[in-house]
Amino acid sequence: MATPLAPTYPPMDEEIWELRLYVAGQTVKSVTALTNLKRYCEEHLKGRYVIEVVDLLENPQLAEGDQILAIPTLVRKVPSPIRKIIGDLSNQERVLVGLDIRPAHK
């Protein structure tokens, strides 16, 4: 039996980024979008993000709340304002600019 990993919490002065990725099943674009998103988050928001994946094949009614018209769509819920990016998230520069993520300092 697998034991869930304990969540890691950021320092008190850092905000948790809440990201929601809308997909439709396990299509190539959906899987690519999630893979790319996880990579960008680990590179630039390590320990400061939460990703929620919403499969619209299972829960189509959830598309209305964030006004989802195309998939995959990434929605940045927090920090505000809400931002959206449509596509497989393969263009890192476009994703970072679209989400207003400052590159991590090395």
From TrEMBL:
<protein>
    <submittedName>
        <fullName>Circadian clock protein KaiB</fullName>
    </submittedName>
</protein>
<dbReference type="InterPro" id="IPR036249">
    <property type="entry name" value="Thioredoxin-like_sf"/>
</dbReference>
<dbReference type="InterPro" id="IPR039022">
    <property type="entry name" value="KaiB-like"/>
</dbReference>
<dbReference type="Pfam" id="PF07689">
    <property type="entry name" value="KaiB"/>
</dbReference>
<dbReference type="GO" id="GO:0048511">
    <property type="term" value="P:rhythmic process"/>
</dbReference>
<dbReference type="InterPro" id="IPR011649">
    <property type="entry name" value="KaiB_domain"/>
</dbReference>
<feature type="domain" description="KaiB">
    <location>
        <begin position="20"/>
        <end position="101"/>
    </location>
</feature>
